[in-house]
Write a structure and sequence with these properties.
2 domains, alpha+beta, about 40% helix, Glutaredoxin
Length: about 350
């Protein structure tokens, strides 16, 4: 589930689903409109004047051609100031998405992109207590805006993504030396995460060579007991990995009966049912260090541009949502094409 506001239509703005950079979105940012065309009579007078001017110019140019530098072009237009780019991007986005005064838009600061010939422009939009963010790219003449993922074709972006993911201390199951690793940033109160859990329960038994890693990403602004569920899960994990996964699945199965009012007792009950010792989770839950571990996982997700749950990385490929077809496509491909 998205942590942001659905009314903004930010699925159109989010970068995670883009496949091609220039093809997905190339829009000229409007400039000042050209002058209105002349009427017919004025146009005729202008044409006559142009003819005379051309004749005179031809005569004069014959006498001055030797003194005029050959091939000299007019100076290139200087790139627009960053403030000008930010203003034009904001104006364009407001019109394109119909974002009126109820939407607060923060654009910038403009900075060079890894591509060199583009500026990278962060955009944050806020409304109704929620927000979302994205990156757009603007050509250095300030005329075109693009959205999508910039990929360095000289390297291995999937391996680089996996390198950035910190798996230390996270819940995991499957072979420790697995060649295929799924890293999920999830929220135990999120209905879409529950759907992904059901998908994984069906898919993983078919692919015993896959390792699954779960990282906490509770969406506190919209899921009031998600943080409590993550904290309790951390305490169960300290006792047993098997107990954690039982707790993980049981919480998803019981989402509909857990509420902010009963979450502490209900989550503790589910932890004990999963195999946790009854007296150990309570001091762990009360320990601020446990919540710090959850927030560290959240910070790692944000560093990977995770803005919604579930967001998974399948050997470095980003997958947002519970898409079984895409998940199995990734697994099957990597099974047939192991990394060198």
């Amino acid at each position: 589930m998205r942590s942001r506001i659905s009314t903004i239509s930010l699925s159109s703005l989010a970068l995670t689903g883009a496949i091609f950079l220039a093809i997905v979105f190339v829009r000229p940012i409007p400039r000042a409109s050209a002058a209105a065309p002349q009427n017919n009579s004025a146009a005729k007078q202008s044409a006559q004047a142009d003819t005379k001017a051309d004749t005179n110019a031809d005569t004069k140019s014959d006498t001055k051609s030797d003194t005029k530098p050959a091939g000299k072009s007019s100076p290139a237009q200087a790139p627009p100031a960053s403030g000008s780019i930010e203003k034009r991007v904001e104006d364009f986005l407001r019109k394109w998405y119909a974002w009126g005064p109820d939407f607060q838009l923060k654009v910038g600061p403009v900075k060079p992109s890894p591509a060199g010939d583009l500026y990278e422009v962060p955009v944050v939009v806020t409304a109704q207590g929620g927000s979302d963010d994205a990156i757009v790219y603007v050509t250095k003449d300030g005329h075109f805006m693009l959205r999508g993922d910039l990929q360095d074709l000289s390297g291995d972006p999937l391996r680089e993504t996996m390198r950035k993911l910190n798996l230390q201390g996270a819940a995991s199951k499957g072979p420790a030396d697995a060649k295929i690793v799924i890293v999920e940033f999830g929220d135990l109160e999120c209905p879409s995460c529950r759907q992904l859990d059901y998908v994984l329960r069906a898919v993983l038994p078919k692919y015993p060579q896959v390792r699954l890693v779960f990282k906490d990403f509770p969406l506190e602004t919209i899921h009031p007991w998600a943080m409590s569920a993550s904290i309790t899960g951390r305490c169960v994990l300290q006792q047993s990995s098997d107990a954690f996964w039982k707790y993980h699945d049981t919480v998803y199965d019981n989402q509909d009966v857990i509420s902010p009012e009963n979450s502490y007792n209900k989550l503790l009950e589910l932890a004990v049912q999963a195999g946790a010792t009854e007296d150990k989770p309570k001091p762990c839950i009360a320990d601020p260090k446990t919540q710090d571990l959850v927030r560290q996982s959240m910070a790692e997700g944000k560093a990977m541009d995770v803005t919604s749950t579930p967001t998974s990385f399948v050997d470095g490929r980003r997958m947002v949502g519970p898409n079984q077809e895409v998940l199995e496509q990734y697994i099957q491909y990597d099974s047939a094409h192991p990394a060198q």
